[in-house]
Amino acid sequence: MPLRIKTTRKYFECQAFSGGWIDGHLSGKPSIAVYVELGEEKKYRSSPNDDPKTEYKFFYGCTVYYGTSLENLEKEIFEAQDYNVSVVIYC
What we know:
This protein has helices at 9-14, 70-74; strands at residues 3-6, 21-26, 29-37, 40-42, 56-67, 80-90. By secondary structure, the chain is mainly beta. The chain has one domain (3-90). A hairpin with a 2-residue loop joins β2 (21-26) and β3 (29-37).
């Protein structure tokens, strides 16, 4: 199951493409900040639980870095990292 990551409109529109990157927070866990090096974008398949007012994108083969805040991620202070992860980003 892919990680779901909430990001800002700016990152979603300007950075969310194959080979791009985004900052955000794990869905349902706003205290966990993430920096994601995006892999390849694939067509997003909607879910019945999706909000029709929200935009979504799907990527696979991503590298995800976890931190306690976006500020720590900017300083490259990571708590953990995962490789080859599928993610759904939304804003």
